[in-house]
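User: For my dataset I need records formatted as: sequence, then structure tokens, nothing else. Please produce one.
Assistant:
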Amino acid sequence: MVVGGHHLTGGMLYVGEHLPPVAEPYEVEPALLDPRLRVDAAHAGHTGHAERCDDAMSCWPAYRELSPQHRAGFLGWLARGRRDPDADIGHVFLFFYGLERRLLADARRIPLSAAERSALEAEILALRDCYARSASFRGYAWGLLGAMWMGEDSAVHERLVPPDEPRAGELPLLLRLGLGQLVRDGRPIPAPWALSWALAHPDEPRPSFAAGGRATDALRERFGARYAEVFGEGLVRRPEGRELVVHYRPASASFGGGLVLGAPGVPDVTPMREPVERLRQLVQRCAEELSPASVSAAEQLDVEHGSA
């Protein structure tokens, strides 16, 4: 496919002269690549590390509203394979809008095959990793990974690692879905999911050892060992309370606002306080064991025993 003189491969694009938005406020889908629009490849927009809304592109762009120079910059990014870590984050979001539309809107009319769903999941994961420098994009990527599996039978904890992000106002959607499925099925909660539950809960104090609001490798390793000692194969909870219903806010303005997504039969773990408190205490114990004073004392004890 050629748009504006750029050869685009890899699919996952909306190309054409008209496509209405999912809702409002646009007259045309923001992610639609209209080949009639002018592209100024000779003066392609700068694509280096733009993060703010007043940088090279708007943080919430629409293809038809870009300047010819920025259209060229965006198409060039697509043609290069979408994996330029220094690209304007606006390019990433504009492409991401199309993924949101396919997964959360058009899939209702044209169901996704297992192969397409897996390919879209892999693309979101790759984009999240490539553009991890943007906390905003990471958050939207994690959110879409959860939203795409709401109402599906697939066991999320077997497909994906749990989100490890600085604490927000509520548990991440993906974490709530994965934990809820485990609770529903009466299955032990794996250590990585238990750790994320303890660290992400908005109502629990977070240990200082979780540097930058995220778990360190040392904390993950120590928690995994201590978790197995206390819970064996893993903590098991009985379902209780309400079913999981979330208010998901897409990045794309095409949706005209938020969506209400449900997961029938999956309990919402958010109100469960007792298991979170037990996990938080275990995390705190691990953090104390990994404190500089504890590590120094353990090393000194090893020296004394070694010289005896």
